[in-house]
From TrEMBL:
Its EC number is 3.6.4.-. This is RNA polymerase-associated protein RapA. PROSITE patterns: HELICASE_ATP_BIND_1 (PS51192), HELICASE_CTER (PS51194). Interacts with the RNAP. Has a higher affinity for the core RNAP than for the holoenzyme. Its ATPase activity is stimulated by binding to RNAP. GO terms for molecular function: ATP binding; DNA binding; helicase activity; hydrolase activity, acting on acid anhydrides. Transcription regulator that activates transcription by stimulating RNA polymerase (RNAP) recycling in case of stress conditions such as supercoiled DNA or high salt concentrations. Probably acts by releasing the RNAP, when it is trapped or immobilized on tightly supercoiled DNA. Does not activate transcription on linear DNA. Probably not involved in DNA repair. Belongs to the SNF2/RAD54 helicase family. RapA subfamily. The keyword Lipoprotein does not apply. Keywords: Activator, ATP-binding, DNA-binding, Helicase, Hydrolase, Nucleotide-binding, Transcription, Transcription regulation. SUPFAM superfamilies: P-loop containing nucleoside triphosphate hydrolases. Residues 456-607 form the Helicase C-terminal domain.
Length: 926
């Protein structure tokens, strides 16, 4: 007989609906139990009370009386009363005396439910099995986190996402050329890290004009709901750190740079991952750095994962680029001069890496070079050698850059120059070269009366109507005055987009431009429209003036030249013959060839020839020789880059064969349509109504008799969705239902956290067994609860151990897979079911005990394998740090120590892997 102690929690075996009982008193023969959930008190004879002691095991999920969801990690017994060690959802440690358990919780163990004859409808048992199996498949799938996004499967993006998100705490610069999908790559990385629990608190920092676009992209492509923080929202939260109110925050760089309170709060908010878009604005040189740079650097020091995004990493010069790398990996990038020198020697390394990749055999000289670079390479495979080369030589693991040249399928760009006569008023100006390029700004409000670009634009719009035209110029004032002129002179109403507008107004203008019907034909943008925005639905770009920076020119063209552009892009450039604008136009067109192709060497050429260019714009230097010199230098630098740095980058940024394998594996998951079968069965079992919708979609809505009032993520008025990626891409109003969709995930969680399907009884026919043979199918789950930062799931995710035992204890699980078992569920005849079970209790108890033993043996093996895997992975990481430390004295000792400590902790947690029975189903042959 078990001892009852006041304060202990017990459960009625026969009346689970009473909730959790608490011992009030005992008198030697009777025990008085209160059930606070129902307000009842019962008296039981102690000898045969139908009560079970509630003793939670590590790995169980519970709620406390405040409703917090907690994970049990251990327990301590003090005079018969238990105090549980738990973790909350954020991984914080919490102590939970048993008296504080939620009174309404139900703790029925499968074996208790089964032996007391409480059985569920059979489909829940199968759904339970499928849920655990799916969890295991995902944990080891290279496609994890990449399946659920509403995106086309583009190999280079998937490569980067899988490579980066697979790292412990990724710190990388995503620097694909404009419009190749850095936002999508960052979203995929985020999605995967959130899904695996690798990250929970995420901060995205963008320039203000891109806030809303990010918000929408994260929501509609990844089902991620970020909280947008502006000044008003930040100030409105006066209680504690405003950034700690939300897990996923989106805010502008301006907010944290201009508000010391916000900067301080951001620094203290303990993010797991930070994403910074348009990171080229973070200025750094060997002697000074901008406030924004310092802020992001400080945040990066506090944040384990950091993604910096820029299409033009060298827009503010080589030093700026180095500065950004330094934020990511201060150990690797600690000396700018050494970095420049190293870069000059990339060509032979790139050549070697390329030949390794092509499977060519290596000469003795190659071997010698490899050994001089990497030390002893005995026993290492090619992939491993390449990875080490890229990591330790070149910008390696930290920088990814894909170029149009290496990605097929981009449309052409066509340059359409429009020479115009420079008006007298502009000729008379004695402005500096930079001002000569925007002469209207020197003339005052009525410049549009004399500037021939206005009439030319009116004419162009007429000719192109109804085609959409995006116009970019340097200044907001030009935008506004041009709008007035177009309206007055030709009745053309243009949408505008400039820094003087509120964010909402800007987004409204962009939407007005995007609208197919009743939208505006023309959007006039100041320079803020030249970054990040998606305007690929337009095919005509007017560059009303030209910037002095080739990277900025590339950013402007990138608004149209991006993934999703379907036609040749027409770039219209008006300039004044004989004036500075013609010189600059020719420099770009003939010197750099930067309009029709992106030019990797452009910023280096500007750095070298910038002074001559400025002088030519002023009418000083000789234009023809400037253009000839520019052409020659561009040609040489592009060639060198292609052979050295960029080649290394390219090898590292996508791997054609492996990337296609990843695409294949996602396509296979898409095509398998298993999730469709799973979810529709789930809906049926739960009582959700569903029917085919328009164009192959499916419409689901709450039914009248659902198991619970709400089904996860199912709106009251229903949901239109699809299981087809192509359909979701074409129809934004349809959710893409995959294993990673929040509805599916939450339904899976709901099931595994409930009792549904934990016990069952079916009648089967199977010629292998005599009639009336008793079989027991047992589902055990091995789990290793550990603090989230250890990412134990990488090595041992919750793992299902299935057994199928006969009365002699023989296991048929391999011979008879779960999927082939068909039977009649006995829930329709509870009385019979109870009789069957009652008559077999001793046998079933024995079989359960045998199952426990067998499952425990399996878990020991699982544990050993996981520990070995973990040791191999961490040994590799340790080796990298030690190798880096040899070439870089600045690698911190504590980093190596932290990694070693992690290994020790993981070993300890894996050793405590916990096994529990999740479900049991009796089968009787007929
Ligand atoms: N895999 C994809 N599936 C569908 N659309 C995509 C995919 N990748 C990119 N796009 C679309 O292509 C456009 C460009 O992508 P994105 O904004 O991520 O590029 P970017 O590299 O961040 O651009 P920028 O350099 O201008 O900042 C966006 O409209 C995006 O939604």
């Amino acid at each position: 007989m078990q001892e009852f102690v006041p304060g202990q929690r017990w459960l009625s075996e026969t009346q689970a609906e009473l909730g959790l009982g608490i011992v009030m008193s005992t008198d030697g023969r009777c025990v008085q139990i209160a059930f606070p959930a129902t307000g009842e008190t019962r008296l039981y004879a102690m000898r045969d009370a139908p009560l079970v002691r509630v003793e939670l095991a590590p790995g169980e999920r519970v709620r406390d009386h405040r409703g917090r969801r907690l994970l049990v990690t251990g327990a301590q017994d003090d005079g018969g009363l238990l105090t549980y060690a738990c973790e909350d959802l954020d991984g914080r440690r919490v102590t939970l005396p048993e008296a504080e358990l939620d009174d309404r919780m139900r703790f029925n163990r499968p074996q208790q439910r089964l032996l007391s004859g409480r059985i569920d409808r059979d489909h829940w048992f199968s759904l339970r099995y499928r849920t655990w199996m799916q969890g295991m498949r995902e944990a080891s799938s290279p496609a994890l986190g990449l399946v659920g996004a509403r995106v086309a499967l583009i190999p280079h993006q998937l490569h980067i996402a899988a490579e980066v998100a697979g790292r412990e705490a990724p710190r990388v610069l995503l620097a694909d050329e404009v419009g190749l999908g850095k936002t999508i790559e960052a979203g995929l990385i985020l999605h995967r890290m959130l899904l695996t629990g690798q990250a929970r608190r995420v901060l995205i920092v963008t320039p203000e004009p891109l806030l809303h676009q990010w918000l929408v992209e994260m929501r509609r492509r990844f089902n991620l709901r970020f909280a947008l923080y502006d000044r008003e929202r930040f100030d409105a939260i006066s209680d504690g750190n405003p950034f700690q109110d939300e897990q996923q925050v989106l805010c502008s760089l301006d907010l944290i740079a201009a508000t010391p309170d916000a900067a301080r709060a951001a620094l203290e908010a303990q993010w797991d991952l930070m994403v910074v878009d348009e990171a080229h604005h973070l200025a750094w040189s060997e002697t000074e750095s901008s406030l924004e740079y310092d802020l992001i650097e400080a945040l990066a020091q506090e944040t384990p994962g950091v993604l910096l995004l820029t299409a033009t990493p060298e827009q503010l010069g080589r030093a700026g680029h180095f500065g950004r790398l330094r934020i990511l990996d201060p150990d690797r990038f600690h000396d700018y001069q050494a970095f420049l020198e190293e870069e000059a020697h990339y060509a032979p390394i790139a050549d070697l890496a390329a030949r390794l990749l092509d499977g060519e055999s290596l000469s003795d000289a190659d071997q010698a070079l490899l050994e001089s670079l990497l030390g002893d390479i005995q026993g290492q495979g090619r992939e491993e050698i390449i990875a080490h080369l890229l990591d330790r030589h070149g910008t390696g693991r930290v920088l990814f850059r894909n170029t149009r040249a290496s990605i097929p399928g981009f449309p052409e760009r066509q340059l359409i120059p429009h020479p115009l006569t420079e008006p007298q008023a502009y000729q008379a100006l004695s402005a500096e070269s930079s001002q000569r390029l925007t002469p209207e700004r020197c003339l005052g409000g009525d410049w549009a009366d004399v500037d021939p670009r206005v009439d030319w634009l009116i004419q162009l719009l007429k000719e192109l109507r109804p085609a959409k035209v995006l116009l970019i110029c340097a200044h907001a004032k030009t935008v506004l005055e041009l709008r007035e002129a177009l309206l007055c002179r030709a009745g053309i109403y243009a949408a505008v987009f400039h820094e003087g507008m509120e964010i909402v107004e800007r987004d409204r203008a962009a939407a007005y431009f995007a609208a197919v019907e009743d939208g505006s034909q023309l959007l006039l943008c100041s320079e803020i429209g030249s970054e990040g925005r998606n305007f690929q639905f337009a095919h005509h770009l007017v560059l009303f003036d030209l910037p002095l920076d080739p990277d900025l020119l590339e950013q402007r063209i990138g608004r149209l030249d991006r993934i999703g552009q379907t036609q040749t892009i027409r770039i219209h450039v008006p300039y004044f013959s004989g004036a500075a604008s013609e010189t600059l136009f020719r420099w770009y067109a003939e010197g750099l060839d930067a309009f029709e192709h992106s030019c990797p060497a452009a910023s280096a050429v500007l750095a070298e020839l910038g002074p001559v260019l400025l002088s030519a714009l002023d009418g000083g230097a000789e234009i023809e020789s400037l253009i000839a010199d520019t052409g020659a230098l561009t040609e040489r630098l592009n060639r060198e880059l292609a052979a050295g740095r960029d080649r290394l980058l390219e090898i590292h940024s996508h791997r054609a064969k492996a990337d296609l394998a990843l695409v294949d594996s996602i396509e296979e998951i898409d095509a398998g349509r298993e999730v469709a079968d799973y979810l529709t069965r789930f809906w049926d079992a739960f009582g959700v109504e569903h029917e085919p919708g328009p164009g192959g979609s499916i419409v689901a809505r709450p039914g009248n008799q659902m198991l619970q009032e709400h089904f996860p993520r199912l709106p009251e008025d229903g949901l239109t969705a699809t299981f087809e990626r192509a359909s979701a891409l074409a129809h934004e109003d349809r959710d893409l239902l995959t294993w990673e969709h929040p509805m599916v995930r939450e339904a899976m969680e709901l099931l595994t956290a409930s009792d549904l399907g934990t016990s069952g009884l079916i009648l089967i026919k199977d010629g292998r067994f005599k009639r009336a043979t008793l079989l027991l199918e047992l589902l055990y789950v091995a789990e290793c609860p550990a603090p989230p930062e250890l990412q134990v799931g990488r090595f041992l995710p919750p793992t299902l151990v299935r057994l199928l035992l006969d009365g002699e204890g023989k296991d048929y699980a391999e011979e008879i897979p779960h999927e082939v078992i068909r039977g009649d569920c006995l829930t329709r005849n509870f009385k019979l079911a109870r009789q069957v079970i009652k008559s077999q209790i001793p046998r079933l108890t024995e079989m359960l005990a045998r199952g426990d033993g067998l499952a425990r043996d399996r878990v020991e093996q699982l544990q050993r394998d996981a520990t070995e895997r973990m040791q191999a992975v961490l040994a590799e990481e340790l080796e990298r740090l030690v190798a880096l430390a040899k070439v870089n004295p600045n690698v911190r000792r504590d980093e190596i120590e932290r990694l070693t400590d992690r290994r020790t902790r993981l070993e300890a947690y894996l050793a405590k892997t916990h096994l529990r029975i999740d479900a049991a189903r009796v089968m009787v042959t007929t």
